[in-house]
Amino acid sequence: MVGVTPQLGPGALAETLAALEVRVASAEVELRAVPLADYPGGPRPSSVVRLSGKGCVGSGENVAFYQQEHERFRAYVAAWARLHAGARLLHVGTALPAEGTPYERAALEAALIDLALCQARLSLSALTGVETAKLRFVVSLATSAAPSAAVQHLRQQGFTGDLKIDVDPGWSPANLPAIANDPSVAVFDFKSRGDAALAVALSTSSAALLEDPPLSFDPPPHALARISRDSSVAEARSVAALSLRGESVNLKAPRMGGPLEVLRGLEFARSTRRSEAAAQPVAYLGGMFEVAVGRVQARMLAALYCPTGPNDLALNGAEPRANPPALIRLDLPGFGRA
């Protein structure tokens, strides 16, 4: 079933998942800290919410960056469970409270989807007709003053795929040509840093996407179709406006408040065109240092609806680096079991 077009588009899948019935008997949150080589500042704080009911368990991951946020998440889930756990019949799309951070809501919504699918004995394959799918992913490299050396080190580890590189505003003119002309760089991530001159240089020398370029950058005509947005994409409707401008989008469930909003964003990206003559903007999914089920869930959605995009979803901590494409299973009940 690799390469089969899903029978449901992302918007229709979002509505189907939102309508699923689910019963929650209990909820718990596991807190931990996971050592991660490329995570700044020590072990990666992590929490996973597990919802139980009817002999099934559904899981979702909170990707907040500070330990106190995960402790607050435990209290958030406990308060939600006091109101909603028990015999009450819920629906995935209306079970979330209005309160909570996007990270908290995304984790709880993912767990609800996982539990609802398990209770209904459904898989994403049963809903979309796709049993397995190939996923292109890129490996993200943190800011480095000598990016070509970092790339060479990764190649020595055995990774042969494409790259996403965080731009260092201090790159010297001597270092710039080698990295700008490396055809394996799919995305330069500015994180709004640097100046217009650096963005112009990379847009002229490279064919890569320019993600969150500095505000001072006024893209020349040849670069308009290469702009991508990440940090500003917090809801599905913003995807439509960006797509109309011809810009690409990096979608992340934690930033957008849940997998359903990602699916709606993918629908906007697919259906919105600046003009018939314009190239379709690229939509892809990114990670946020997930260390548990969240990375698996993101890879499943990306494999379904943006399998050839520069998805920043390499497995964390994999040594030697796995090479794309990854083969993603979608035929197991639940969401994130592969």
Strand content: 15-25%
The description of the largest β-sheet is:
7 strands, parallel
Low-confidence stretches: none
Radius of gyration over all CA atoms, rounded: 20 Å
Shape: globular
Q: Give the termini distance in whole angstroms.
A: 16 Å
The SSE string, one letter per element, is: HEEEEHEHHEEHEHEHEEHEHHEHE
Number of domains: 2
CATH topology of the largest domain: TIM Barrel
What's the name of the CATH homologous superfamily of the largest domain? Enolase-like C-terminal domain
DSSP helical segment count: 11
Provide an overview of this structure.
- Strand 3 (44-53) and strand 4 (56-62) form a beta hairpin.
- The protein has helices at 10-18, 67-84, 102-119, 124-128, 147-156, 176-180, 196-205, 236-244, 253-256, 259-271, 293-305, and strands spanning 21-22, 26-34, 44-53, 56-62, 90-91, 132-135, 139-141, 163-166, 185-189, 209-211, 227-229, 248-251, 283-285, 326-329.
- The protein contains 11 helices and 14 strands.
- It has 2 domains: 10-121, Enolase-like, N-terminal domain (Enolase-like, domain 1), CATH 3.30.390; 132-329, TIM Barrel, CATH 3.20.20.120.
- The model has no long low-confidence stretch (mean pLDDT 92).
- The protein has 338 residues and is α/β, with parallel strands linked by helices.
- The strands form 4 sheets. It has a 7-stranded parallel sheet with strand order 7-8-9-10-11-12-13. A 3-stranded antiparallel sheet has the order 2-3-4.
- Helices cover 34% and strands 19% of the residues.
Blueprint (SSEs and pairs):
Layout: H1 10-18, E1 21-22, E2 26-34, E3 44-53, E4 56-62, H2 67-84, E5 90-91, H3 102-119, H4 124-128, E6 132-135, E7 139-141, H5 147-156, E8 163-166, H6 176-180, E9 185-189, H7 196-205, E10 209-211, E11 227-229, H8 236-244, E12 248-251, H9 253-256, H10 259-271, E13 283-285, H11 293-305, E14 326-329
